[in-house]
Amino acid sequence: NFVAGDLIIVHEDQQIPADVVILCSSSLEGRCHVQTTNLDGETNLKVKDPVPETHQMCLEHSPDWNPNTICPVLSKIEGQIETQPPNSFLGDFVGTINLKDVGCKGMSYQPLTIRNLLLRGSHLRNTEWIIGIVVFAGMSTKRALNPQIPRLKFSTFETRLNRLIMGVLSILLIMCMLLAIYSGFWEISHVNHTWYLETNEFG
């Protein structure tokens, strides 16, 4: 069980266990990809971004780029996350992260959007790992507040491809039926002229 404020590591193809703000990603550029089919029915991957300042801190303090050494770096950062109250809108998230690095003076304020948030129930794809901080857990997550079963969605290309395949299959089915009917008529009309096709007691 997770609570708000927990640091978690999620590896590729694992399901996100809570609503998580991304602090660091295995990609040096910071981007990661998630699949949200379980939430909104969409099959295409979505691009997400970590908080730029925390990701940069990890780059500076973890030369081996290993999540086990990055977590202690992140745990030393003092800060606070402020967000809107939990809601069921999957595409809506607004907040700020206020950070104070150890040894630095003052606070830095950075906005948070849905691009920085991984939703519970989504899957991490094409990304080795991410480290994030839990903002909503349990019944406060967007998935828990939005429990209806998602309708499977397809891209325009997939929709056109499916229609094309159905069209080709329909044409093949019609051709098979017409040829079967024609074959029956042809056999009846040529039965007296095709002695070599006649069957005997041995088949």
Describe this structure in words.
Strand 6 and strand 7 (108-112) form a beta hairpin. The strands form 3 sheets. A 4-stranded antiparallel sheet has the order 1-10-2-8, covered by helices on one side. The chain has a 3-stranded antiparallel sheet with strand order 4-3-9, with no helix packed on it. Strands 5-6-7 form a 3-stranded antiparallel sheet, with no helix packed on it. The relative contact order is 0.22. The protein has helices spanning 37-40, 52-61, 67-75, 142-145, 156-189; strands spanning 7-11, 19-25, 32-35, 45-48, 78-83, 95-100, 108-112, 117-118, 123-125, 129-136. It is built from 5 helices and 10 strands. The longest helix has 34 residues, at 156-189. It has 203 residues and is of the alpha+beta class.
Category from helices, strands and their pairing: alpha+beta
| Low-pLDDT segments | none
Radius of gyration: 29 Å
- How are the strands ordered across the major sheet? 1-10-2-8
CA-to-CA gap between the ends? Answer: 72 Å
Annotate the secondary structure layout.
Layout: E1 7-11, E2 19-25, E3 32-35, H1 37-40, E4 45-48, H2 52-61, H3 67-75, E5 78-83, E6 95-100, E7 108-112, E8 117-118, E9 123-125, E10 129-136, H4 142-145, H5 156-189
Antiparallel strand pairs: 1-10, 2-8, 2-10, 3-4, 3-9, 5-6, 6-7
Summary, kept brief:
With 203 residues, the chain is of the alpha+beta class. The protein contains five helices and ten strands, in the order βββαβααββββββαα.
